[in-house]
């Protein structure tokens, strides 16, 4: 049997398979993006595909801890819009 890679959600803290999660990356140019393919270059953090997990990550500053930098509010707004598209 093949080992399934598990990742921890920065919002709720649950461990899930990599395929069930959404990858948020910080590019070498310090840009924060959603990585739908899971293959883009950059430092990655994982979120469950639920708006409540994104809200928990914002409240607990999960992204800021993962990327070791301050995250501007515009980035969170962009992530919320992307998440809404995915939930539909």
Automatic annotation (TrEMBL):
Pfam families: YlxR. Coiled coil: none annotated. Residues 7-81 form the YlxR domain. InterPro entries: YlxR, YlxR-like_sf, YlxR_dom. This is YlxR family protein. It comes from Candidatus Enterocloster excrementipullorum.
């Amino acid at each position: 049997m093949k080992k399934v890679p598990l990742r921890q959600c920065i919002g709720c803290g649950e461990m899930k398979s990599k395929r069930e999660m959404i990858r948020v990356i910080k590019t070498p140019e310090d840009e924060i993006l959603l990585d739908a393919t899971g293959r883009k270059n950059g430092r990655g953090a994982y979120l469950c595909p639920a708006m409540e997990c994104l809200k928990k990550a914002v409240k607990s500053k999960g992204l800021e801890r993962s990327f070791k930098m301050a995250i501007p509010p515009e980035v969170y707004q962009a992530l919320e819009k992307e998440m809404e598209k995915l939930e539909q």
